[in-house]
């Protein structure tokens, strides 16, 4: 029998249906999933041995939860996935304001309907997706928004006195009865509003304009908070923190492999024309790791995982634009294309000292350079301890090539054939890649050739100079002779 076909209170009782509190419901459904070896939280990478076990323990304990972490750490996503731990449908007294349980009505409206109709009281069924409520805490949020207030229009329409309980308009929290209620950025909620949550969290009763309502609300609360808020904007009042069962610390990906999974999962790539070399993806993720350690970027603000997601989308669209302009059917990511994702970086980082907008752009370019230096040793010998005069230096012939007065102008609008032809023309560069990355995909080898040139420039072995249509690579000394500038 399809239980949702039941339409009256009497039929519900006859079916043997048993009511459960939402915390009991979540706990029992979580137990079933864990016993069956099912993944409880999907598409959330890097939390398998840290955050997710903490969440599962808190839910088994029946705790309200506060997720504490910097921006872009999947706090809200974790909360939204808790909906999957709810029963697919629950019964409610039809047309009640706060989704009254037919077997345990708590509102005056629900109790009156049962008293009037008895076992013929009509019921309907609420899907779990309708049992999730979310509110962003902003300074303008009022007690009326969250808890409720006397509604003059309702009182007038029903011809009720303001002293009548029926004139109350319930706020979001009472309407979230038997549901998950999420308050994002809790420290931004004014202290007096946080105080109004005390009794709801502990005793379940609420007070509206002098009405003492004993409403044992059944709500599972989830809060999110950013540590930055504790110092810059607001804080969580101590008695409220005391009433939240578990505070769970979130974090950024701890390795590039995890970060890559997140980026590829979330990035919306709209073209198949663009080939993305593996080293390019590694370089992209390394940029975020460099940003989190960079002295010019405010660590308290954090560097969201959205940085690499937006950056990858910009990176691909940079190559796609080139492809569309020159009429090619396909192309591949080049290291120069990383210049096209600078707007995605500058919008995602907060500088320690905010200056002109150009300052963020320079920091973004420096992050790319730092990432190049970091990943080079994963593909080629490290440049850190090598001397140019060392005969065993694998880069010596390449540096000498430019030392003979040769240079390379790499242009953004080169076709793929021009790009490859000009890189192949540098014999020592091709030999270096063949010696250390002979097994790599031929398309990836060209990206690696570019990587070597950029790394030599970052280590001050070559000069890399921005020109209007791209970059010029040349010997350091010859650059001094040409114009006295590097």
Secondary structure elements and their pairing?
Layout: H1 9-14, H2 22-35, H3 51-60, E1 65-68, H4 75-81, E2 89-93, H5 108-117, E3 123-127, E4 132-136, H6 143-146, E5 148-150, H7 152-157, E6 168-170, H8 172-175, E7 179-184, H9 191-195, H10 198-202, E8 206-208, E9 211-213, E10 219-225, H11 227-232, H12 238-243, E11 246-249, H13 256-266, E12 274-275, H14 278-293, H15 306-326, E13 331-332, H16 342-346, H17 357-375, H18 396-403, E14 408-411, H19 416-424, H20 427-436, H21 442-458, E15 463-467, E16 470-474, H22 476-483
Parallel strand pairs: 1-10, 1-11, 4-7, 7-10, 12-13
Antiparallel strand pairs: 2-3, 5-6, 8-9, 14-16, 15-16
Helix pairs in contact: 13-14, 13-15, 14-15, 14-17, 17-21, 20-21
């Amino acid at each position: 029998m399809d239980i949702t076909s039941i339409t009256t209170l009497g039929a519900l009782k006859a079916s043997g249906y048993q009511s459960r509190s939402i915390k009991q419901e979540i706990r029992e459904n979580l137990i079933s999933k864990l016993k069956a070896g099912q993944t409880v939280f999907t598409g959330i990478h890097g939390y398998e041995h840290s955050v997710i076990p903490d969440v599962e323990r808190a839910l088994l304990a029946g705790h309200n939860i506060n997720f504490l972490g910097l921006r872009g750490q999947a706090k809200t996503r974790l909360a939204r996935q808790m909906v999957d731990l709810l029963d697919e449908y629950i019964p409610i007294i039809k047309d009640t304001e706060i989704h009254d349980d037919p077997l345990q009505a708590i509102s005056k409206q629900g109790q009156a309907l049962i008293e009037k109709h008895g076992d013929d009281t009509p019921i309907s069924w609420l899907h779990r997706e309708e049992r999730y409520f979310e509110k962003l805490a902003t300074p303008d949020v009022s007690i009326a928004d969250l808890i409720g207030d006397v509604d003059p229009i309702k009182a007038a329409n029903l011809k009720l006195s303001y002293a009548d309980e029926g004139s109350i308009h319930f706020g979001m929290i009472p309407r979230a009865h038997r549901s998950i209620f999420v308050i994002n950025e809790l420290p931004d909620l004014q202290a007096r509003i946080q105080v109004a949550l005390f009794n709801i969290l502990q005793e379940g009763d609420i007070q509206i304009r002098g009405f003492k309502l004993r409403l044992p609300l059944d709500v599972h609360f989830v809060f999110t908070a950013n540590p930055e808020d504790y110092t810059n904007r607001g804080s969580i009042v101590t008695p409220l923190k005391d009433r939240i069962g578990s505070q769970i610390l979130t974090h950024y990906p701890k390795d590039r492999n995890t970060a890559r999974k997140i980026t590829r999962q979330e990035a919306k790539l709209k073209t198949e024309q663009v080939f993305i070399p593996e080293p390019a993806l590694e370089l992209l993720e390394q940029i975020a790791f460099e940003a989190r350690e960079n002295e010019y970027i405010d660590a308290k603000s954090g560097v969201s995982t959205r940085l690499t997601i937006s950056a990858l989308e910009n990176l691909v669209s940079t190559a796609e634009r080139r492809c569309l302009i020159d009429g090619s059917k396909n192309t591949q990511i080049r290291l120069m294309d990383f210049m096209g994702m600078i707007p995605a970086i500058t919008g995602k980082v907060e500088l320690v000292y905010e200056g002109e907008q150009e300052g963020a752009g320079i920091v973004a370019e420096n992050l790319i350079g730092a990432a190049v230096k970091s990943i080079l040793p994963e593909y080629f010998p490290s440049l850190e301890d090598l001397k140019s005069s060392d005969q065993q230096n694998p880069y010596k012939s390449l540096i000498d090539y430019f030392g003979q007065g040769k240079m390379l102008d790499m242009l953004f609008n080169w076709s793929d054939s021009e790009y490859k032809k000009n890189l192949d023309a540098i014999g020592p560069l091709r030999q270096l890649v063949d010696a250390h990355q002979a097994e790599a995909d031929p398309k990836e080898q060209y990206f690696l050739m570019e990587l070597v040139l950029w790394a030599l420039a970052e280590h001050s072995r070559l000069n890399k100079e921005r020109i209007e249509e791209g970059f010029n690579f040349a010997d350091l000394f010859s650059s001094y002779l040409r114009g006295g500038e590097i």
